[in-house]
């Protein structure tokens, strides 16, 4: 009798194992880059990296965002700090790596992070080839623009050499390219010189307790700016039909809808 009960119990376990659906494998999307993407600590709020709202644009049951961007890092220091190798070790087939550097690579006045265009190229190639060696997908992103208008009210190009290198590597190695430099400049131009301040960490004294004396930052984003930049990135995921990502967007809401840019005249930042 006991043997019969044990047999039936084993049979039930086997039937359950074969009939229980296996959850689908999630696509992991790694973000590597600098402070314009990175997660921010509470002490610098409302400064926001565009990687932070990116997760809201995807179905989290299918896509997991792993933001490994770090403040102040160039391609050279990201490698020197051993931030890249752990990602390589963890990469699985069909994962993604979104790669956006340039801000710190071009900083000639900071020799601790500066990277020549030639070395920047070598480092991008390393990221691309090592990602592909793990059967994962690299995507190159030109550095998002800084806010810089001339006297005629025209937004200036602020990453000429490094955006050009990024574009060249993407073409040479047939890597998907998101030209965030160009797209973000166009967005700032649409907002205009004054209204584009809403996209950046621009605070008057007393606006926020983290910045009692105010802040005039034309590089780092407000919550609104980070969301707008994330929208631009996602718009290219859709336009280029990136496998496993374009088909797993979150259902549109007022917060994550990917819509054409507006002039910003009627739009207010989430936390001024």
TrEMBL record:
Family per record: Belongs to the 'GDSL' lipolytic enzyme family.
Acetylation found in the keyword field: no
Keywords annotated in UniProt: Hydrolase, Plasmid, Signal
Species, as recorded: Hymenobacter volaticus
Domain named SGNH hydrolase-type esterase: residues: 31-227
Organism phylogeny: Bacteria, Pseudomonadati, Bacteroidota, Cytophagia, Cytophagales
Signal peptide start and end residues: 1-19
The protein, known as: Rhamnogalacturonan acetylesterase
Taxonomic superkingdom: Bacteria
InterPro entries: RhgT-like, SGNH_hydro, SGNH_hydro_sf
Membrane-spanning parts: none
Record keyword Cell membrane present: no
